[in-house]
Write a structure and sequence with these properties.
Structural class: alpha+beta
Helix content: 10-25%
Bound molecules: zinc ion
Low-confidence stretches: none
Oligomer: single chain
Strand content: 5-15%
Shape: elongated
Number of helices: 2
Number of strands: 3
Number of domains: 1
Strand order of the largest sheet: 2-1-3
Length: 103
């Protein structure tokens, strides 16, 4: 199950479960749309591209399956990139010219 992380790892903007600005890489590294643009669609951690984070519904539309945010709430553990701005800039510069599907 996807971990719905509460903030952008770079600028710390709140990204609640219903946010349309949340972007994730395949490892669930989570950033806001503005930071993903600045990162040239390059994850500072894994170097992969990003996609909009799917929105988990509030309601359990199939009660027998116990889904939705009521059963699987968003994480409240805020995360921060461990890399410095300089390091990230070099990493992005190295990778960004390769399309994500060819990385
Ligand atoms: Zn951000
Ligand atoms: Zn990543």
């Amino acid at each position: 199950m996807l971990e719905l992380r509460p903030n952008c790892e770079l600028c710390d903007k709140d990204l609640p479960p219903a946010s349309l600005e949340a972007r994730i890489c395949s490892y669930e590294c989570t950033y806001c749309a503005d930071c993903v643009e600045k990162l040239a669609n390059t994850c500072p951690t894994c170097g992969g591209g990003f996609a909009p984070r799917p929105i988990r519904p509030n309601a359990a539309y199939r009660p027998e399956l116990k889904l939705g945010l009521g059963n699987h709430p968003a994480s409240d553990k805020r995360r921060y990139s461990k890399f410095t701005a300089e390091d990230i800039a070099a990493h992005v510069a190295r990778i960004k010219s390769i399309p994500p599907e060819e990385r």
